[in-house]
## 1
Amino acid sequence: MCDAKKENPFDVSPQISISEFYAGRSVFITGATGFLGKVLIEKLLRCCPDIKKIYVLVRPKRGSRAQERVDTLLQDIVFDNVKAEHPGCTKKIVTVSGDIVDDDLGLTNEIMQQLVQDVSVVFHSAATVRFDEPLRLAVRMNIAGVQRVLNLCHKLPLLVSLVHVSTAYANCCLDEEIKEQIYPTSILPQQMIDAAEWMTDDTFDAIQPKLLGKHPNTYTYTKSLGEILLRDGRGEIPTSIVRPAIVTASWKEPLPGWIDNYNTATGLIAGFGTGFLKTMIGNPKTQLSLTPVDMTVNMIISCGWFNAVCKPKEVNVFHNICDQKNSVTIEAFLSRMKQTLAQNPMQAMVRVPSGKVTESLLWNKVLRFVYHLLPAFCIDCFNKARGKRVFLYQRYQIIHKASSVLEFFTMNSWQFSTVNTGRLSKLLCKDDQSMFYFDKLDFDWDTYLLNYNLGVKQYVMKEDMADLSKAKTRQTRLALIENVMKGVLLLLILRFVAAQTGITNKLWELVV
């Protein structure tokens, strides 16, 4: 499959394509029901049609069994094309009921025997991605969860490849270029796992600031420890770590602009697009490291192939980031979104879309009061007097709390090395570079953000594009109302100033 005499895995000459490698193989996926997992399953079914089976670890949730959750997942529009191209392909998906926080992943002896006899590639993407997750739960999922997946991997005799999904921000506490390597931490992963088991909640919470150090949250901290545990515990298993930045809507596949959640940049588009969000903390010149989900999935699949074909002796890290020479700043992002929203407004709009980004905490508080809290309080009072539900003021408080966890990332920029990413891309044959693209230099932000905006409208907010004319009419009406209110406010201010200066009557006559 490659030249075994060469020590550097990037110097080999692979003799097998990615789809050929996965033909007849079975893979095991954690995090399958998540945003990334859906696209990973769809891509494997569509571009590796001869894959044998895809085992997906799914936990029962809110009264729904694991199989019911998978059945619901497969009804998503993201699978429409692959089901049309390859009828019956979803029969290759095998539901495995379990959870990464359970011992042995909660697997039964029967399913364990199936995995032992069948699985040769493991993709581990399950994690808690909440920035404000309590540290104990983040440890259980993002560190101990890695340990449990490794325990499974060591029981799989056919295993030739393990791919772990981390984050580019696992080392965001560094004040230097972040390289594609695993950085040391002040505490060992096993020590953290042990502490989470025996320490009381009060003690654990008390030492959390010291443990996190310069890390902004429990997510980045536990992901960095998870990488160390993976490196030290993988044994001889060929392993790669994929570090995506902010995973956002798809660029091309399975549908341009497809997205299914409000996380990170999607929340900004929805918030600013509806006029609900008017201000946020951030440096306008901060680079937004957005990574379309299809580029991340393509790298994950390529790394699965790389591990098995090139047999690296060390754990290789790959930064999955759009070309940094062609990045977009927060200022440019909002400017482009304003243009696309003007042409494709959201029907759920409550105010004309506009947004301000400021580095000043004080000024942001003033803007929040003027644009968010004061209008919300007035509307809630009006609704309460009419006997209607009061919720707007409280909702804004929740939004402000949620947005505060993003401030570290909207105020700072990072440089990421992508040497390994470039080397991996060059190993792929031309057909694979086209089919499993992840290192694209021809990325067009204008087209992407237009599709992103439309994706938020269609797939997240469930708005019908046929109602676009109604949305434009609503936008025009809201703009008129806003301009009238501004005019009235200006007149009131002028009248007040005139009254205070003793020339009320003359100035008022001139104004009116």
## 2
Amino acid sequence: MRNSDLPQPISLNVQEAGGSVQQMGAVGWILTGLSWFVVVCTFPFSLCICLKVVQEYERAVIFRLGRLLAEGAKGPGIFFVLPCIENYTKVDLRTVSFDVPPQEVSAHYIYSNPICI
């Protein structure tokens, strides 16, 4: 089996119109540093808030200050989220199926009796 036959991972990098990956500004770096400082000061208790787990059939998309991180989706497993700076959304990769009830189609203009499909 060749490498081209295998499915390739999906890249979730956010790029600007010019093609460069978005960077954080000075205020973003300051807020991130303050968040790390709070995590270090409250170390044993902050682990309960910062560590998140996603299952094997899920991925976590992490946003820092409302922008997608360049690393893309995380998971499955344990990952770290900075409080007040990062937000995450779990994406379920399982296939979902729905039962669609049968509907009656009226072909009154062609036939005198309605047709059930």
## 3
Amino acid sequence: YIPGTIRKAQNLLKQYSQHGLDSKKVGSALTPTEGKEDTVDIEIDAYIHSISAFVKLAQSEYQLLGRIIPEHDQKKTFDSLIQEALESLMIGGENIVSAARKAIVRHDYSAVLTIFPILRHLKMMKPEFDKVLQGTAASTKNKIPGLITSMETTGAKALEDFADSIKNDPDKEYNMPKDGTVHELTSNAILFLQQLLDFQETAGAMLASQETSSSASSYSSEFSRRLLSTYICKVLGNLQLNLLSKSKVYEDLALSAIFLHNNYNYILKSLEKSELIQLVSVTQKTAERSYREHIEQQIQMYQRSWLKVTDYVSEKNLPVFQGAKLKDKERQMIKERFKGFNDGLEELCKIQKAWAIPDQEQRDKIRQAQKNIVQEAYGAFLQRYGNVPFTKNYEKYIKYRVEHVGEMIEKLFDTSA
């Protein structure tokens, strides 16, 4: 049993030293037909297994030594015997750190997440490492803590660089969704934060390890949780500022409002669907309410685009006509009101039909609110002037029934309608 365990452990470690994550043929020895993501996942699993395998190997080796080597030579002999296996483990770990650093340079922050499960496992296994390496040279004992520190530093840098990348993502017109839908930056940022949820303790510890006010051993899990909450709020704050800047690329203020609405709504729904909202509320209790207010503000901004339509039929802008018979000037004014409403309605429906609101609940809510506002104003106007003799050609000016107007608004944000 023991020789088999050792042989398996040695093979794993040897394989890892030859095929680290930094290799261009990453994982090829393990899964030549798998896709890139699957390959990396298998490589991570293999390295995690090799960490456990090293401990098993070292423990078995030490037990065997106890039987055949004099006690005063055991520590020195053990130190010498495990060097090759330990070196293989370190090379694998250093390759992973190196690949993560290159990923940071490429701004491929999801690739850096490979470090998180490995670091978590290393820290979990550290007491066993410390126990089995007791009595070895300082250089041997310090290797695993050194690798842990290296991974924590690299991970913390990735987190900080990611937050900066969200803040500084450029406002390019060609990169903006023409229909005002959720921006790729938003979905990527949320995806990255959601992936951190699986490694909350590890990510929090990474951030805590960079705090000058605390030594590696003195920070509490509550402290690191607060740091992670602060970090997530920072990313979300950077994202909001960038989205505001991006929204200014749109010339149409209503489309700008729809864009911000979609993105804020996507962020809020994503936070609520995951544990992110609980993490955010550790340091920002009012985050949920704040997003709801932002969403409502953008709906109101969008509704202003319809004022140029409803103003034509608004009661507050109508003069009081004197006498039973209309003057030419009064007839002309009614004609202009109907024409202005018709043209404005047709123009907005044509433009806004191509815009997107992916969330069906929000889409229905915005349509319904707009339908109510426009139908009410137009219905009152039509009731007041529909039977007034202001023209011989009623069909030219009274083009739409009230319910027809509602049907047109129902087709907003729907290219298939």
## 4
Amino acid sequence: RDYESVLRQFNCPDCPDRSAFWRMTDDDTDPTAECYGCGETIYALSPEQERGRGHFVCTPCKRHWPSERAMLTVGQECYGCDELIFPEEITPRRRRRPDMHTDNKHHCQACGTGKCKAKPEVSRRRR
């Protein structure tokens, strides 16, 4: 039987101080990994629970952008046409170099509901 490797995110409920980690798994039906902190066997998060770098593509205006804080179930408004767009995929976050800086403003669907965990100084762009 041939297996296709799939990148999945794991997070141990018993180790709150440990951050989530990504790992390639051979079996997407029952993916498990060993926790780095406690050594327990843990199951992968569902794709809807995974958080990371989102890749957004707006079909109406052909605009595309990445977001380092994304979930499949949380959309972002397109700056080009104001459509609510959901990410096509979630991948591990990139590690930023200390000299990298951006003035891009964060704005997601969760900002409007008050459930966004973005830093307060990063706010939704107003028109």
